[in-house]
Write a structure and sequence with these properties.
The chain contains no helices and 11 strands. The protein is mainly beta and 124 residues long. Strands 2, 4, 5, 6, 9, 10 and 11 form a 7-stranded mixed sheet that branches. A 4-stranded antiparallel sheet has the order 1-3-8-7, with no helix packed on it. The N and C termini lie far apart (40 Å). 27% of the residues are buried.
Amino acid sequence: QVQLVESGPGLVKPSQTLSLTCTVSTVDITTAFHYWAWFRQVPGEERAFIGAISGNGGFTRYADSLKGRFTISRDNAKNTVLLQMNDLKPEDTAVYYCAASLYYTPVSTRYDYWGRGTQVTVSP
């Protein structure tokens, strides 16, 4: 069973940068699953794909609307997957989730494992 736990600051001001961490337990992120992804969700909407990174770090994909502002990376020594978000806007307010899948897909329902999510609020 793969365990994922998201963490990071919950409140930031517009235009600031925020980094979230997904700590992975019980498996090695470089070998166990092929893709590690971030999604976000606002009330009343489906989870939206942010981006994904491969187990070996050689592949990354982002939602077109977020490309250039959001970056996904890995810290293999800490077994974590990171999401850096720049120039944050109030519309980035959401619950952010990390997830794991055996293959690349932007479709949330095809991910096998999920964290519980962490709230990010962007407000003056």
